Amino acid sequence: MSGADEALFRPVRTGNPFEETVERLLQAIKLGVVAPGDRLPAERDLAARLNVSRVTLREAIRVLTEAGYVESRRGRYGGTFVNDRLPKPRARPKRKIALELGEGLEDALVLRSALECGAAQAAAARELAAAEREHLNRCLADTASAKLGDYRRMDSRLHLAIAEVSGSPSLTSAVADVRMRLNELLDAIPLLERNIEHSDQQHQLIVDAILAGDAETARQAMDEHLGGTAALLRAFLM
């Protein structure tokens, strides 16, 4: 089980177990923790980790099945699998999103900066295990080689991986939550080839600094990277 698995499949609050179960499963799918074609954890295990009944979990899975995110397969190698093709985000006018969000955009951007710059610094300050270093490099390579339609999800997965190797499940959860807040906004702006190339270069700098144990450079590189994304969001949405 990866750090992101632990962070996203944490126990839900008791007030709205069904709604939060759907939210946690969608987080895991949309942020690339469970990739297209992969199987979700076994029902008994997943219900225990989310601290919900199997009835609630099955209902949440049914909703995601109807929405086109997962499918159930029977047999010895059955289970619930993420669909190879995920539903496209619902397109909404950028102006409407900006008006609905109001000052929430700046709030989310400030929160993201504080969390992810801190995550990069904390990750670089740790003595990473071989498996953690391999995980970080694999997520970096997956992002750099991603097709255009998969880039956002792979980018999310890399940023989550950086939070994971910080050693703090709470920080990983917070990074996942703020990324979900920004997902619709990121989907509302175009993927620019020049920006993707620049992002890949910055990702490499961040990961290199983390693996080298250079905490200050990791923080600065992440701050510059997030600043570019924030500038694009402001330009297209404000």
Automatic annotation (TrEMBL):
Keywords associated with the record: DNA-binding, Transcription, Transcription regulation
Boundaries of every HTH gntR-type domain copy: 15-85
A UniProt-annotated Pfam family: GntR
UniProt-listed SMART domains: FCD, HTH_GNTR
CDD domains: WHTH_GntR
Tree of life domain: Bacteria
PANTHER family reported for this sequence: GLUCONATE OPERON TRANSCRIPTIONAL REPRESSOR (PTHR43537:SF24), TRANSCRIPTIONAL REGULATOR, GNTR FAMILY (PTHR43537)
Protein name stated in the entry: FadR/GntR family transcriptional regulator
Lineage: Bacteria, Bacillati, Actinomycetota, Actinomycetes, Propionibacteriales
